[in-house]
Specification:
It contains 9 helices and no strands. The protein is an all-alpha fold.
């Protein structure tokens, strides 16, 4: 959705005219519609997943009661029901080992890493790309991923770029 990128390929199929700025602005605005609801719904599922996987008591649970208590603990309002219910939420009961939150965490990392390019003022900055490749991508699972990311960005990841991308920044 970045103008610098869209202008490279988003062209009229007959005239070759570059996508107009006004249309890009409308598309960007439309992309953030409903993100507050979607993000809260997603986070509720992630937190419920973590609550199940951090239980220390192995006695059988009343699934509905546990889910209700978990969502109440996190302050989920009735108008935003959970995306999935525990009995059929495969990330909870299907062996994902509390991994649902990793998707939102990946989105935080993606948005924060992309911010490094924005900060350079060039989305195609070769030096930033080379540093990302050298410090993160080429290392694979050889070191603590948090340390790899810190070397790339010089700090821990921030949630702000994801919120901005979703139209949720203040």
């Amino acid at each position: 959705m970045e103008p610098e990128v869209l202008k490279l390929y988003a062209r009229h199929y007959q005239t070759g005219a570059v996508i107009p700025d006004a249309l890009m602005a409308k598309m960007k605005k439309a992309a953030t519609f409903g993100q507050g609801f979607a993000t809260v719904e997603y986070m509720a599922a992630s937190l419920l997943d973590m609550d199940w996987h951090t239980l220390t008591d192995t006695k059988p649970q009343d699934t509905a009661a546990f889910e209700k208590a978990s969502l109440a603990k996190w302050g989920l309002i009735a108008e935003i029901p959970p995306r999935y219910r525990s009995p059929y939420f495969n990330h909870i009961m299907g062996g994902y080992a509390a991994g649902y939150y990793s998707y939102i965490w990946s989105a935080v990392l993606d948005s924060d890493a992309f911010q490094a390019f924005k900060e350079k003022g060039n989305l195609f900055d070769g030096a930033t790309a080379a540093r990302f490749r050298a410090e993160v991508l080429s290392k694979g699972g050889t070191e603590d991923p948090a340390l790899l990311y810190q070397r790339f960005r010089g700090r821990d990841p921030k949630v702000g770029p994801l919120l901005e991308k979703r139209g949720l920044s203040l």
